[in-house]
Amino acid sequence: xxxxxxxxxxxxxxxxxxxxxxxxxxxxxxxxxxxxxxxxxxxxxxxxxxxxxxxxxxxxxxxxxxxxxxxxxxxxxxxxxxxxxxxxxxxxxxxxxxxxxxxxxxxxxxxxxxxxxxxxxxxxxxxxxxxxxxxxxxxxxxxxxxxxxxxxxxxxxxxxxxxxxxxxxxxxxxxxxxxxxxxxxxxxxxxxxxxxxxxxxxxxxxxxxxxxxxxxxxxxxxxxxxxxxxxxxxxxxxxxxxxxxxxxxxxxxxxxxxxxxxxxxxxxxxxxxxxxxxxxxxxxxxxxxxxxxxxxxxxxxxxxxxxxxxxxxxxxxxxxxxxxx
Length: 325
Hints:
There is one protein chain. By secondary structure, this protein is of the alpha/beta class. It has a domain at 41-171 and 240-321: Rossmann fold (3-Layer(aba) Sandwich), CATH 3.40.50.1820. The chain contains twelve helices and eight strands. The chain has helices spanning 2-40, 74-81, 110-123, 138-147, 177-186, 190-199, 201-207, 213-217, 221-232, 241-252, 278-288, 308-321, and strands at residues 44-48, 51-58, 62-67, 89-94, 129-134, 152-158, 266-271, 293-297. It has an eight-stranded mixed β-sheet, with helices on both faces. α11 (278-288) links the parallel β7 (266-271) and β8. α3 (110-123) packs across α4 and α6 (190-199) packs across α7. The mean pLDDT is 91.
């Protein structure tokens, strides 16, 4: 009798495993279908003299070019700055090289990306614009202010990935080689990343968003929803993979910029507990741009948890105060 029970139990176990696998795959497929639809929503590809560039636009008034960070695209840029469109701002959120509908060119340096930003403004008939660069988007945001100073009315760098010399102390410890390898594997696969946000969300917030999970847990429901949307909307990772790989190459070997050449009124914002260490970078950069203003928070992480409204108000005030035809 026992001999008959074992095959039956084994068959039941195999059936349950297969059923669970099918359910997981069904959920993954459904979530990916939704993620692809979300990423495509509002995006338009325009032909420019620098090649095709994807962007989306909202609002009317003072032109603002929003340059997204790592793992983003026009969707992330609009999620960050779209609310400004309700206050007399024409938000133009572009997808950088290798993200979503903007292809990866042979030269994908921040300088080339800055030229592409200018090409997009040309294609849209925008002569001058405020520029916001978030995270790794700060590199090409600074470059457009350096290379095309007549196109930039104001510059804002939010949690900027930027150069600082080795003698300037880090505001966060550099990640180990193992941690970097784990991060790259995590954001290198739609399925791996999807699994991680379902079974290890706090680790994703800690490692990918470089933000202490305890801050999110203690935040308001609105802030928690904002952070959860950022975690979710990195999917589909596969549509951002070329940009992420290029980002790794660029940020591993940061070079000093001619910050003295930046004439646009500049605002920098960061938090000391940002896991990517942007606080020290932002302070150093602000000291070397004439009349730059630096807003530093003690807590908030890379996504500035708890400061969303304050940051939005600072962005709006800076853009409006320096708007020029």
